[in-house]
Amino acid sequence: MTGNSYYYRKLHSLLGVIPIGAFLVEHLITNYAAFNQGHGGFIEGVEWLNSLPLVFALELFGIWLPLLYHGVYGLYVAYTARNNVTNYGYFRNQMFMLQRVTGVLTLLFIAWHVFETRVQVALGNVTHEELGVRMHEIATQPWAFALYCIGIIAATFHFCNGMWSFLVSWGITIGPRAQRVSSYVWMVAFVVMAVMFILSLSAFLDPQFQDTSVLTKS
Amino acid sequence: MAEAVADKKNVRFIITRQDSADSPSYTEEFEVPYRPNMNVISALMEIQRTPVNANGKKTTPVCWESNCLEEVCGACSMVINGKPRQACSALVDHLEQPIRVAPMKTFPVVRDLVINRERMFSALKRVKAWIPIDGTYDLGPGPRMAETKRQWAYELSKCMTCGVCLESCPNVNDKTSFIGPAAISQVRLFNTHPTGEMNKDERLETLMEDGGIEGCGNSQNCVRSCPKGIPLTTSIAAINADTTKHLFKKWLSF
Questions:
Q1: B residues 207-226 near A, CB within 8 Å?
Q2: pTM here?
Q3: ipTM greater than cut 0.95
Q4: Boundaries of domain holding A147
Q5: For the residues of A18-61, what is the DSSP string, one character each?
Q6: Does B243 contact A171 at a Cβ distance shorter than 8 Å?
Q7: CATH number at residue A135
Q8: Structurally, how many domains does chain A consist of?
């Protein structure tokens, strides 16, 4: 590759946190509304997000382009590693391998998920109001539910473990104790985020998401 | 009585060999008579004296490199039972048998267990891992180093360029140009020295280029493998902090 790989890699690392990581957290908050506020609350969240000024530019520069860069460069990073977990079964080396595996899984999952939701909105097959119904259709298929669970676990793991390495790569957690505490913090964050996402996904199974009739009543 | 029995014991070695740099590798087995307190080097010396393999066939003696025999020179690094380490400090009594010995293939293999660690020495040249004091006149004594700093910097100075950290690193391979943990830790050592600090930015800038510090993927195998117990991952993270600061300083000063 031409140019300085230091800057490429640093940009990859930064984009993973801002904006992609930040969006993942926002996405969790919106989806969690489906669990604790029901269909109305979820659609309210969707509508709020889409009412933001310059929403197309926000999506383009805040999600799509960073995601594309992070994903493509990430594939290159995963390709250049020669994993050696069988010889060196240390905890961090396993995390190193899992970070690359979950990265690829997350990329596939996101491509599929975006196709089923955002792309369908763009094609005019689904409106924002109908997104809850769309998710109900997806979640009620057992195989799709299972694949979504795998995708959720991969994505949240990749984010949380990625935050751990981000803090090392930018020189914030330097010593072994700081890095160990950071490991615990992000492991807890991973569990909390994965559980919240799966609760949100399960919430879409509820019959209230069968159609948009509940929305007009409130 | 017990000693007489021990004398008859043999130690089995499975050695990965290679006749020249380009030829394919193969394994050959050897039976070496056990002696108390023997290490992998003394076993290799025994094979050198009687180059006969386990099948009783005469063969070429196994080639290897070693110097100090006290784990300070870094020459005898090889992969012993799957882990890279110094053959001189690999005591046969502590090893599972048969003992598998192989060259560190991250480096070009010259012959048998002899590898070429040239890339490590060029890395040290690249990052200027020295203190420049030469001049046309006597510059006088340099600034003093604080004792508190000296104590941890001394640990970093124990690096013997043995290559074990590079061998264990999943990101040091034929697909990347990553400089490896050893040189990054040396940058920290020489950037800590009060005189070496004067060329701090040059060293950091070398690590902010292709094959520099960005190649680290935090697998942390290096720190687990280092025979000298050097806190390599702490060095890498500290240099990550320094390069990050340097990056912003450079951007904001233009």
A1: 207-214, 216-221, 224-225
A2: 0.93
A3: no
A4: 5-211
A5: IIIIHHHHHHHHHHHHHHHTHHHHHHHHHHHHHTSTTHHHHHII
A6: yes
A7: 1.20.1300.10
A8: 1
